[in-house]
Write a structure and sequence with these properties.
Chain lengths: ~375, ~375
Amino acid sequence: MFADKMILRIPGPTPIPARVQSAMNQPMIGHRSGKFSALFARTAERLKPYFGTKQDVYILAGSGTSALEMGVVNTLQPGDEAAILVSGAFGERFAKICERYGVIAHRLEVPWGEAITPELVEAFLQKKPQVKAVFATYCETSTGVENPIADLAKAIRTHSDALFIVDAVSNLGAVPCEMDAWGVDIVVTGSQKAFMLPTGLAFLAASERAWQVIEQNKSLAFYLDLKAYRKSLAEQTTPYTPAVSLIFGLAEVLDMLEEEGLPAIVKRHELMRDMTRAAMKALNIKLMAEDKYASTTVTSCDPAGVFHAEALRKMLTQQFNITIAGGQQHLKGKIFRIGHMGYCEPLDVLQVISAIEMSLHQIGAPVELGAGVKAAQEVLIAHV
Amino acid sequence: MFADKMILRIPGPTPIPARVQSAMNQPMIGHRSGKFSALFARTAERLKPYFGTKQDVYILAGSGTSALEMGVVNTLQPGDEAAILVSGAFGERFAKICERYGVIAHRLEVPWGEAITPELVEAFLQKKPQVKAVFATYCETSTGVENPIADLAKAIRTHSDALFIVDAVSNLGAVPCEMDAWGVDIVVTGSQKAFMLPTGLAFLAASERAWQVIEQNKSLAFYLDLKAYRKSLAEQTTPYTPAVSLIFGLAEVLDMLEEEGLPAIVKRHELMRDMTRAAMKALNIKLMAEDKYASTTVTSCDPAGVFHAEALRKMLTQQFNITIAGGQQHLKGKIFRIGHMGYCEPLDVLQVISAIEMSLHQIGAPVELGAGVKAAQEVLIAHV
């Protein structure tokens, strides 16, 4: 095996394209220079289509969690009530952040592997009209479930004045997102998923409705104070030191995304999802999410009683230098998750499926070699 | 001019060595993988000597400001009183962060260009024994003043039980820092200064005394909750997604720093400071800081009444592709600041001085060509 041919098929970080690596290697420039300001403002502008918004998009040096926190500390005050739609580990994170700041977090939970339905939210909001914000996860990375954000937004808008705040960290850029049209108030995402960058940046956009609340509130935190970012972006800059080399890379990523075009990018990801799911079904491996709510970017599989997920993962790494993800929290060691997003194409999906088949054979699990690949090929051929 | 030969002589970000760029180009790996965990834990361990501590050093994806905020939200509660030693823009930032969280911030201010003295702090602490933390800036980047941290620590330890929290963003790695021996409780710094990395990482270490307070406090923020970082580092990981490519770069930086050795690094920076100051004196350009409190990493000059700082900066960029910094806040447009840290050596200082001389000539300012270079050469020759 070539050590530098390591194949990363986890739900983020995702592989970095060579041209993005090169772009990040440009000589460092001052972040208060005119050259950087122009690049920064243009780059922020170019992010808007992926959010489906005319609003400004803010770029933060930090992880996805820092952006989730940004969504909380600017819109709520201690004692406010919020509804958290929890379908896995990342929904729960929103609840924990709210509680840290004294926000009353009402968790609307579904079992891991299921999606949040509009009915669940409607019933709750009718009982609790005082709720000021509803938090949801677009792609629940821990389970491979894509929550129906457009439908949830419609239900919330119909029954409440609450802000609707969405974590789209693990799928924005790979899925449709029409923040303005759907009536979503805040969308946050990260750099290391569909945006094909290293970890270290997060992006956030807020609606006019959200800005009315944000402008009235004193932000509960300092580094994450959105008003400071708005004031600075109007001057083509950032309130605190931006991650310059990652911004260089982001500009190159946006070139790549624009060359392919968002509709084609979404179709490519849907195709990779469908290929992966067809393969797993052909291999008789249980999928955690129903087809209807299946994530476009990550597929979770539950091999309970048939083989050990960790044995498969270990064999994939040892024999083929391929990394897939395991489970999180109570699913740790029990499931495996295949990332298919970012710098990844249908042939890469065939590759990981073939390696999974061979690894299953090696660990003594029941497998018909080639069956998963064939099912995925059939999906791909029907598409091209 | 070659566009890629742009010369960055600002007090951060600083130029990135080619071998560090290459290290950051390694293929992305999962941040929850064993390979990354081992690298991360080893890299955090290797940061300790630059802090002068046996305590763990925490690595954060964020700007220096996020690390300043980390120093506040883990040690104080709303209503607590803190003393902020303000000698410029970055001292004031600590005060603003405190106030955001309801901490009562007592500002002990000196005019910009002067240093904080132990006497000032002693007198205040005797009047206000209830102060729970004292915040200081090691290098006040906005003025080029290095505050006497060891002496301040001694004064605080003698007269108070307050924690002593130090912003060393713009000089750690280039100056002596003996956190444990001096009795400093928290030191924070950033990646883009003496550590020769792109912007995007911050580092923090805390004393046993600080940990006793931190463990008792509920952190006022979530992403910046130090207890979560401590728990994760014990498991060789981070609570939230780390900036993987910057950690690759940091490991390479630490190789470079260890090859040169900290004593030699400190001497190199002191030499570059002395060369720069000798040159400015020879050119009759007023230095903002006294020799005794002159920053090792950035020199601030005040050309009031002789020439316009911004005209010099513009000419340097246009003719020589060299960037130096201007003033901040009320000094914007009035002063200029020369960075001499990180991937910068004495010959680079001679280069920037010669370009400053020629630019002064071009803008019609009084200058004897070569006079500054000669003075700096004499300092260098006496040293080698």
